[in-house]
C-alpha cells in the first residue's frame, strides 16, 4: 500500500502512483474481455481464466439477521456451495446487533467463504469497526477480501463526528481507510468507495456502484449509465458492482419485478456482461428471500436466488450451470496464461464472454440481449428463435452446448468446425470448445 499522506486530498484517488497503477489494471481488464458483437471480421481476444470468473462472482448476504432465513449458517453455506460461490458481501460483524448473529460469521468463513465487509448504515463506531475487523482477520486469516465504506446513506442518516450527510460519510470513509492502513493485520486489504446518490468520493482503491435495472430490462443500459454517473477523475475502473439484482414479484410495486425465469435470464446475462466490461467483482443481490411475504407486498423480500424455503430459484440453477462449466480443478487454474483467440458473432444484441480452463478447453458464454420482459403486461415477451454463428480462429471441436437457463443439451456439430451454429431464444448458452 502506498503511504496515503503523500497522496492528494482525501477526495482524490489515493496517490498518483496508485492512480496510474489502477488505470493500468482497468485497461488490462478491458483487454482481457473485449465485447464480441456483430462484426465483419472477428477480433483477437485474450481469453479470461475460468477460475478468475469464479473468483469474480459474489452474492450479498445478511448473516446478522437472526430473525431471517440467514439465521441458519449451515443453510447459507449449503446455498453457496450449491452455487459454487465463495465470495459474499455483508456488514462488518457487530455484537451490538440483537440476536448474536455475528457468531455465524466465523462459521461461514471457516467453510472457505471470503467477505467484502461494508461499514453499513446508521451510526458506526469507527474504532470498534476496525477492532472487529482485526479480530476477524486474526481468527480467520485471509477471509476479508475488501472493506467498503458507508452503504446508501442517502436513504437514511449517517452521523459521524457531529456531522451528517456527505461530509460525515466521506470523513468516515477516509478515517476507516486510515485505520486499515495503520493496522498490521489489515493494511493489505483494499478499500471500496462508499455508495450514495449523488456520488461522493473518499479515499478508495476501487469505485463501487449499485445498479437495479427497471422493468425487467437487460442490464447493459443501466450499468452503462451508472459508469458514466459514478466515474471519478475522468475514469471508472477498477470498480466493483456491489449490488445488482431483479426481484421476483409480478406486481406494480417498486420499479418493476419479473417472474423467476426472467430473473434467471437477466442474472446470467448480468454476470457474463459485467465480467466482460472489466469489473473486478460482482455481488448479486441477494442469496435468500430473507423473509416470507405471503401477501406479496414487499419488494425487498423477493430478490433472493433462493426462496424463503431455501429452494433454488431458476436463477440459482442457471448460475450453478455456469459455475459448473467454469469449475477448474487444474493445478495451474489461477496462474496459467490464457490464449489469445479470434472469435466473433454475426449478430448484434448478443454478447460473448470467452473463458479458458487450464486444460486448454474454452467455455464460451453466449448471452442473448434482446428484450425478454414486458413491463406493461408484467409477463415474458415471446422471443423469436434467432440463428447465429460463432466464428472461430481455426477448426475446433465443440464438446457440448447447453441452454444455461433450462439445462437442455443443444445439438453440436460433428467434428471440428470453424463456425458454431447456435439458435438463440432469449436464454444464455454455454459452449465448451477445444
Automatic annotation (TrEMBL):
<protein>
    <recommendedName>
        <fullName>Calcium-binding protein</fullName>
    </recommendedName>
</protein>
<keyword id="KW-0732">Signal</keyword>
<dbReference type="InterPro" id="IPR017853">
    <property type="entry name" value="GH"/>
</dbReference>
<feature type="signal peptide">
    <location>
        <begin position="1"/>
        <end position="38"/>
    </location>
</feature>
Amino acid at each position: 500500500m502506498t503511504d496515503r499522506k503523500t497522496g492528494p486530498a482525501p477526495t482524490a484517488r489515493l496517490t498518483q502512483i496508485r492512480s496510474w497503477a489502477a488505470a493500468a489494471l482497468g485497461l488490462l481488464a478491458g483487454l482481457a474481455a473485449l465485447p464480441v458483437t456483430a462484426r465483419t471480421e472477428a477480433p483477437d481476444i485474450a481469453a479470461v481464466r475460468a477460475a478468475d470468473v469464479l473468483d469474480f462472482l459474489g452474492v450479498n448476504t445478511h448473516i446478522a439477521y437472526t430473525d431471517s432465513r440467514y439465521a441458519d449458517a449451515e443453510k447459507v453455506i449449503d446455498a453457496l456451495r450449491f452455487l459454487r460461490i465463495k465470495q459474499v458481501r455483508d456488514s462488518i460483524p457487530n455484537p451490538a446487533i440483537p440476536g448474536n448473529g455475528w457468531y455465524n460469521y466465523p462459521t461461514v468463513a471457516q467453510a472457505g467463504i471470503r467477505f467484502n465487509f461494508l461499514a453499513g448504515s446508521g451510526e458506526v463506531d469507527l474504532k470498534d469497526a476496525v477492532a472487529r475487523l482485526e479480530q476477524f482477520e486474526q481468527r480467520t486469516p485471509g477471509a476479508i477480501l475488501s472493506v467498503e465504506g458507508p452503504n446508501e446513506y442517502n436513504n437514511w442518516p449517517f452521523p459521524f463526528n457531529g456531522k451528517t450527510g456527505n461530509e460525515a460519510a466521506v470523513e468516515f470513509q477516509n478515517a476507516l481507510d486510515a485505520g486499515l492502513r495503520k493496522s498490521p493485520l489489515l493494511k493489505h486489504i483494499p478499500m471500496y468507495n462508499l455508495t450514495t446518490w449523488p456520488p461522493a468520493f473518499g479515499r478508495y482503491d476501487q469505485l463501487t456502484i449499485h445498479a437495479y435495472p427497471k422493468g425487467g430490462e437487460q442490464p447493459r443500459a443501466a450499468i452503462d449509465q451508472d459508469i458514466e454517473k459514478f466515474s471519478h477523475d475522468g475514469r471508472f475502473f477498477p470498480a466493483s458492482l456491489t449490488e445488482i439484482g431483479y426481484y421476483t414479484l409480478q406486481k406494480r410495486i417498486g420499479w418493476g419485478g419479473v417472474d423467476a425465469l426472467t430473473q434467471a435470464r437477466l442474472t446470467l446475462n448480468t454476470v457474463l456482461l459485467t465480467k466482460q466490461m472489466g469489473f473486478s467483482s460482482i455481488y448479486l443481490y441477494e442469496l435468500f428471500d430473507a423473509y416470507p411475504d405471503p401477501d406479496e407486498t414487499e419488494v425487498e423480500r423477493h430478490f433472493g436466488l433462493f426462496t424463503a424455503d431455501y429452494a433454488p430459484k431458476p436463477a440459482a440453477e442457471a448460475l450453478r450451470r455456469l459455475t459448473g462449466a467454469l469449475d477448474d480443478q487444474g493445478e495451474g487454474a489461477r496462474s496459467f496464461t490464457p490464449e489469445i483467440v479470434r472469435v466473433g458473432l454475426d449478430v448484434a444484441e448478443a454478447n460473448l464472454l470467452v473463458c479458458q480452463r487450464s486444460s486448454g478447453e474454452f467455455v464460451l458464454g453466449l448471452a442473448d440481449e434482446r428484450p425478454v420482459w414486458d413491463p406493461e403486461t408484467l409477463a415474458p415477451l415471446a422471443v423469436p428463435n434467432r440463428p447465429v454463428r460463432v466464428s472461430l480462429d481455426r477448426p475446433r471441436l465443440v464438446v457440448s452446448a447447453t441452454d444455461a437457463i433450462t439445462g437442455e443439451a443443444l445439438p453440436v456439430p460433428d467434428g471440428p468446425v470453424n463456425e458454431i451454429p447456435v439458435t438463440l431464444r432469449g436464454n444464455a448458452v454455454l459452449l465448451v470448445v477445444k
